[in-house]
Structure formats: C-alpha cells, structure tokens
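Quick look at the format.
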Amino acid sequence: MDKRMLAAIILTFAILIGYQYFYAQFAPPPAPQQQTATTEAPKPAASPAVTIPASAIPGEEQEVKVDTELYTATFSSRGATLKGIELKSYKDKAGKPIVLRGDAVLPALAIGTDDRFQFSQANFAVARKEVRLGPMAQEGSLTFDYVAEGFSIRRTYTFSNKNYGFNLRDEVKGLDAYWITLGKDFGIYEKDDSVHFGPVVLRDAERTEFKTKDLKDPKSFREGIKWIAQEDKYFFSSIVLRTAAQEARAWAKGPDAFVGLKMPAGVSDYYVYAGPKEYDRLKALGFGLEHIVDFGFFSILARPLFWFLKILYSVFHNYGVAIILLTIIVRIPFLPLIAKGQKSMRKLQEVQPRMAEIREKYKSDPQRMQREIMELYKKNKVNPMGGCLPMVLQIPVFFALYKVLLIASELRDAPFMFWIQDLSTKDPYYILPVVMGITMVIQQKMTPSNMEPMQQKMMMALPIVFTFMFLSFPSGLVLYWLVNNLLSIGQQFVMNRKLKAEAA
C-alpha cells in the first residue's frame, strides 16, 4: 500500500504541474454554437452581437492622441472609442513598446443598443486633436459628442499623468439603456495557453473567467457586479463600475469571446484601466482590480510568498537571487519533518527483506499477511507513511510558489545572470531544465527506497518526464525547482552520513 501511495503522490504531482501547459494546448476546439438556456441568468429577448449595421453613420474619422509619462493612447471619433494604448515601460522581444489594441470592427469602449453596437461607427464631434500630460500638466480631458433625432451621447474622458487608468463619463439621453464593451482582444497582448486569457467578470470578491468553449450560450450576471475585463498573462483591460449596471454578460462569436455591460440611460461613470498586472499598483487603486491577479487555489499562501519575494528583490535587486533565497527560507520549516521522513524511509528499507519473507510465507492468507506486516512496523518503529508525509505537506507551498512565479508580471524581462535574461520565459539553451533533471536522478539514487526493482525502474522515468515538461516552463520556475532539488540532495547526504555513523 505504501509503495502505491508514494508512486501515486509523485505521479499526481507531475500531472498537476503539467496540466496547465499540456491540457490547454491539446484540448479539443470549441463545440459549435447551440441554442440552450444559460444557467447563470434568464436569457433576454435580445443579446448583444458584434454585427455592425450596414448603414454606418458617415463622417471623416479623426484620431486623437493622449500622451502621458506611462502610455500613449489613440482615440477615434468613430464611436468615441479607444483604438489602442502603447505602454512605454514595457517592451516586446524586438525592444519596441508593447501596444494593447482592439479590433477595428468592434473597438474598445464601443456602445450601442441592446442587440448591436451601432454607435461604434457613428462619427462623434471632438474639438481637441491631442492631450499631452507631463510634469507641468498632470490632468487633462477629452470630450466626444453625438447628436441625432431623439437622442444624444456625450463621452468625457479624464486622464491622469502617472496612472494607467482614466475616468469615463457617458451621458446618454433618449434611450432606455445601452451596452458598453471592451471589444475583441483589447488588453490581450499574448495568448499563452499556460494561463487564462479572455473575459473576466468580478462579482463582489468572486472572480469568474471564461473561454470561448464555455460560452455556447451567453453567461449573464445581475448582482454584485464590480468590473469586467479582458486579460492575458501579464496585461489586461477593465471597465470598473462607478454607476450600477443592469447586467454583465460574456458571449462568443465564432472563435472570439467578448464581455460587456448593460447600463441605464442617463449619466454613467466608469474607471477604465489598460496596462500591466502590477498587484500593488492595482490594489492601491481601491477598485478590487487586484483580483485580476489569480493566485489560484492556494492563494492564502501565494500572496504572502509574493509579498516576501518582492521584499527580497528590494534588497538584492535580482529576482533570480530572490527566488533562490525564498526557496531556501520556505524550506527551513520543513527541515525537521523532511529529516524524519528520510529516517523513516531508511528504516523501511532495512525491514524490506523481512517484509518479502512475510509476503511469501502468507501469500495465501492476505489478512494474516497484513497483521504480520503491521506487527513488523510496530516492532521496528517504522511509519510506512513517514516518507510520504513531508512531500504531501509541501505540495500546497509548491503550488503557491508555482503560481506566483508563473503569473507575476514583475518577472517579465527580469534578468538573472549569464544567459538567463528573462525569468518569465523558458531557458533559451535548456540548460536549467537538463541540470534539474540530473539532480532528480541523483536525488532518487541517494534516497532510500522500499520499492521493488520494477517499480524503481518506473520511478526512474520521472526525471525524464519532468525534464521534458520543464523545457517550456519559465526559467524562474525551473530555477526554484532546481534549488529545491539541490537542497534535498544536501539534506539527504547529511542524513545518510548520520545514519551510517549511527550504524557503525
């Protein structure tokens, strides 16, 4: 039983680590759209669609640039919408500023009536051609107006020089209600299958995320709506409600997923954010936008670990060094338990010949065999689960650290040393994963085992499996695992010498 348990724990460990990378990449494509009822809320008579009517309102498009110390945004008179934001402090692989841009057919912040976003093609009047902020001008605003028979729309944007977010006020007259959307892909720079990308809705403190395959029918929410967002691994855009919404909805059209809000006519106020997932910056805003940083199931552990990682970085100014130190510090509380487990595994190995005799002698009487084995454990003070318990207790800490190192935008473009110049991407030469695999082999050779030869051969395949998985992992994660293995080898070496001295 103890052999199967140990094998199951280790294999589960491997499967859970690899799930995010491999399942998402090889998952089947979304099923065709079906007409079934949504479970979250009753489906209204009409649902928002991204089809723009053929009778688009004519007029010459005018672009307006908004330049701050953090970004340059491009707005359009077509729908008074946002075409894109260039983030000055974040670079792509070519060294150029990253641009978060939406789709021309359904641009970011497009509005329209209940079943269409027709005002995204309406030509709004705008007086200014640019807004330029800096040390001498910390705030600025931009107003778009559209007037037609029976209704009018005024959109006022207010910007701050040192913030990725800005305020938006919509004044809509002559309509019962309207929809506002983030459009397609705005806020998404890279579609990384290791993490979620696409629509997110925050209700109270509950984060709900969607993929296209989840949206065979629109998903609607009417209570506790705080904000909607489009996210990728390190960046996102969001509309934060300052005026209560009638409904939030996520839906799909073809391969794309969208999210929008239904608002009452009159005056509606929003806070719009488009930029990096910097946890401290988002939390300081006070809108709950920090919930966009998804620390996963073990978030109660991940948040303090993330906080401590940043403290170490503030001292050493190198996230690679911070990861190494954090790995060492996190392991310290487990040292006595790990040592006890190693000692238990050694004792279990020592009684292995006697266990084999019992199994052979009582192979026709399983109950007697079990009693004799338990008596053997008791007589030699052996805990069959002693070697597994330290591993089981470390799993929550590992996954908390794993999540932190996987999603922390702070690690993006963060160098370590030599050839590792970005801890958020894979090792370009695969040196760290290969060395990590070698340390796993050494660790297995040094660790006492009560497994049968065939089981040992099967377990020896694990370093190959782990190495293959870690080839595409961010180098920060591989560095953590490598350091953890080296610490295990060091502790096992000390324990083996101690046990050998005691036996002598």
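Next, a different chain entirely:
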Amino acid sequence: AIGVREEGGTVTAVRDSTGTPVALEAGARLAGVVTDSTTGRPLAGAQVYLVNTPHFAVTDAGGAYAIEGLPDGRYALSFASPRLDSLRWVPEPDTVEVARSAPTVRDLAIPPLARVLTAACAADSAAPAGSARLAGFVATDSAAQPLPGAEVVLEWTGEGGARRTLSAEADFRGVYRFCAAPPGVPLTLKVAAAGAAGSVSDLRLEAGRPAQQDLAVPRRVARASAYTDAADGKTHVLLKVVDAETRRPLSGAVVRLGSSAGRRTDSEGNLTLVNVRLGTYTVTVSHADRGDRTVEVDIDRVGGVQLELRVPPGQAVALAPIVATSRPMPRELAQALEERRRSGARRFIVTRDMMDRIATGAPHVETVLRAHVPGIHVEEVYYPGTKILWFIRIYYRRKRVDVYVDGRRASGEEVARLSPHVVQWMEFLPSQLANSRGYFNNLGGEAILLLYIMTPPPSVD
C-alpha cells in the first residue's frame, strides 16, 4: 500500500425522509395489555395514545402494546377502539410517569358492563346521595333481539307500606337505566314489550356499586290458519297487514315468508300465499311509510281466521337517487391531503370514496365518523317519545367538537339532518391547527370537524 487515509466525524443530527428529527438515544418505554372486561378477552386493534402528543401504538392480537422512545415525564394515557364506540363509553385518561432508567408497565381495560351501562349516571345531578345504579338490556328470550322503547318499571315497598315505582324507557339498543334506585330493599323489575312481559323479583342493590340485570321478554308467536282449496288442492294461507294504531289496512306492503320472494298486499291489505307447508316461519313485512317488521308465525289448520300483521306507525325519509360519476379531486381536498402528509399532525381526512364504502349502512354523518375517527363519541338526542333524530353532539376526548359546513359553523340539528351522500369530504383536525386556518372551537374542545359540500365542487386548475 502506498499510504493510509483515515476519515472520521461526529453525528450531530439524524432526520428521516420527511425531515423529521430522529432521536439519537433511546427514550423511555411504556408497555402493557388492554383487556375488555365485558367479554373477558384481550382488546386487539385498539389505539393506545398519550394525550396531546404524537405518541401512540396499536394493540396486537393479545391486546399488548408498546410505545418506545418517550422523553422522561408524566403523561395522560388513554385508548380508542370501535368496541368503545359500540358501548358508547369514553375512558378517563390515566396518569403515567415514564423514565429511561426502567420500562413502565401500565395495563388498561374496558370496565365491567354494569359500570359502562351506568356511566351516564355521573351526569345525573338529581340522583340523591347514596343511591344505587341499575342498568341492563331488554331483548327477546329466544333470538335476543333488542326491544327499543320497552317500558321498564322498578317497584318496591317504601315507608309505611306505600308502593313506590320508577320507570325508564329502553333506548335504541334496548338498554334501560336507573340512576337513583333505592339500595338495600327488595325490588321487582318488570318490562312489557311486543305484547309480552317479563319480570325479576327480590332484586337487591348496593349503594355506589353499579349493577346489571338483563330482562328477557318471551317472543310471541302468532298463529295463521291454512286451508286446502277444493279447486286446486293446494294449501292457502290468508294474511292481512294493518296499522298498529288505526287498524286500517296497509296496501303495498311487501310480505316475505322465510326466504321466499316478497309479495305485495292489495288495496285492503290482504295477501294469499299458495302451496305453503305447515310449520313456523319468520315473516317480514316492509312498508314505505312504516319500515320493517318481523314476527314469528305458526301456520296450521286450527282456528279458521286470517292473521293480522300489525305494523307500528313511523315516518319515512325519502332520499334523492344517488348517481355515481367520475370527477376530478377538488383542489381544497388535494391541498388538505398534502398538508396532512407534510405536517404529520393528528388529523383525519375522510374522502368520498371512503364514505361510499359504508354508504349502504351509513344514513347519518356520525356513522361515518365512528367508522373512520378513533376515539370519537357521538351523542344522539331524539324527539321525546319518538325514534326521530333531533340533534347530535360530537365529543373527542370528552370535549365537545365544533362542526363547520363549507366554512360556516353548523348546529347539532343541522348535522343530524345532513346526509353523508351530499358531503364531498370531511376533515377532522386539532383545534390548534384549525385556529391557524380561521376556524375556532367555541366549546373549548380539542378538535374541529370540517364538512365540505361545495356543490358543484371546484375544479382542479
């Protein structure tokens, strides 16, 4: 060799392909397991995150997570999962301290179902101190179908032998709730729905300890008569569809016996099914102004009367036909996607394509949000005594979210009536970033929801 040349240097900074600095020394490590106490299984696919930081991890099939490279300090730890959305429960952030000297282990869990179902009682200021909490599901005993609107009554004997009662109505999931039940006394729980009743006796509650008691209502089986026509020798079944309140016949209702093709009722609400075997069937009735109704029907040769299928009153919402067309990406959406790529901020953009994938089962904007934004919670408020959506409130990390539609702040009533089919895209972003763009959260929340309708959408230059 002619000579030796030695080169050296000191690494002062490392950046990734986007220009983000990479730590030169290992940070603290936070790990643990997330479980679902309502099912007794690990919670896979949950997003575990440190509040107001970019640090997060997703749990594996065993519910385990690990967040690496953390600066020493104290953090608020929380998690999000579609399971939380289905339970309508938002966890309180857990304070945790981490240090490089040793790994920190912190397990997280969805609490038992009794606590989840009674969580809303925390906001009930009318509940006397020392009250007991009780909640549960109301469903049919055979098919476990929820019974929304079922009236649940709690009875007990008060001072002086007086009979005392509390009543509650099951929500759209079939969940009922009592936040001010008396502790330590024998209680009777009753429910009436779908023409049947169920009850639980000698129920005792403890103050400060949430309790769960589900109620099963026997599934009523209707009876229809069949006869053999002398002319064709085939079995005939007579059906009649009527309104549950007015008892007037419903024409044009589509009736399906089991998996058979649907048949429409005539002007008098009547329908005759031919060549039907005797036995028990699931009969589904669909009506444009009443929705769907399903009932078990036992068809035999006893009785000699026709079956009346009573359909509850309701309101139909007419949607305009949806026409799928190909068009350029709006300039504002392209800019938002590029800004998200460059900033790396915790934000979500839901495009038209993403919404179309769940459009069949997404009649409201909040349904799309739950599907695409982890940790979001939507509170739905219905008109008293009806199943008609009145307004919605959107929460993120327990704080209210302000909604803007094409740059204008929208009310909860407006958002509740907004179909996702007219929305071009949605942008869910932190309040700090939204403020820099001229949007402000007047409710003091951590995020802003921007909806873009823009009809017709702007073209790309």
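Residues 315-328, 455-461 have pLDDT under 50 and may be disordered.

See the schema section for token definitions.
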